[in-house]
Amino acid sequence: MNAGSTFTAAMVQMRTGLLPEPSLEQGIGLIREAAAQGADYVLTPEVSNMMQLNRKALFEHLAAEQDDLSLKAYRALAAELKIHLHIGSLALRFSPERAVNRSFLIGPDGNLLASYDKIHMFDIDLPGGESYRESANYQPGETAVISDLPWGRIGLTICYDVRFPALYRALAEAGASFLTVPSAFTRKTGEAHWHTLLRARAIENGCFVFAAAQAGMHENKRETYGHSLIIAPWGEILAEGGVEPGVFLAEIDTSKVETARRAVPSLQHGRRFGIADPKAGPEHLHLVRGSA
Questions:
Q1: With 60 as the cut, is the pLDDT of residue 283 above it?
Q2: Which residues are marked as active site?
Q3: What local confidence, expressed as pLDDT, does residue 289 receive?
Q4: Is residue 252 in a domain?
Q5: Residue 234 — very low, low, confident or very high, per pLDDT cuts 50/70/90?
Q6: Of 83, 138, 252, 261, which residue is the least packed, with the fewest Cβ within 10 Å?
Q7: In 157-196, at which residue ranges do the beta strands (DSSP E only) sit?
Q8: Helix, coil or strand: residue 120
């Protein structure tokens, strides 16, 4: 593993299936490919174990964290390859009636360094008839999570979280140099917003953004956007996938975080403020500012 201020990051782009076993086989193959190309840190997409829209089928194949065979296999793989392996998320059993969408950061010894439950649920009706109700099956998380890598601190998020910039600002203010957004964006929303949102999260926080994505037409007939991205703190795209499964790598120079934050020190300039209410009268038509 590289020491010092640089390391190699790899985004694993998948097309997860309906069942955990073939999805695990796909994931292991791509992670091995990433490690063979010199990756020190590897990120997989959201729901790396299965993509099930049918509630009955989903719960038939869910396992609790302590029993999940995919997680056990990925922990063993991280130890074998001596890499930091970040499983973007696994669908796991939370209770008899609820699942959880949980991300895992695994160290090179196979131990779990951190886990994060997706906070924001994807409940949306898209033009053209696509509709998703993540909250119907999943229990949302309540806590932001940050962890340490040898090269700096990393903030864990998942997919739809990217539309809530306050989460990323909180992670950056807590010391994160890297922000992770493993995702399963729909093709429609991805075409419209994927690059813009991710570059914005990088630029406004002076952070690297790692976004491994699901890609293509899945067995459940859902089409995901792909285009896994590695973005530098100034907003440059360092690596990008297409619409097929694969591995996409970039060399990460951590000094770029400090360079970007010195050039635009917005993390130091944040202010708390009130919002004027015109209905309350002219005397209230101003912002009330205070220190952050």
A1: no
A2: 46, 118, 159
A3: 46
A4: yes
A5: very high
A6: 261
A7: 176-180
A8: coil
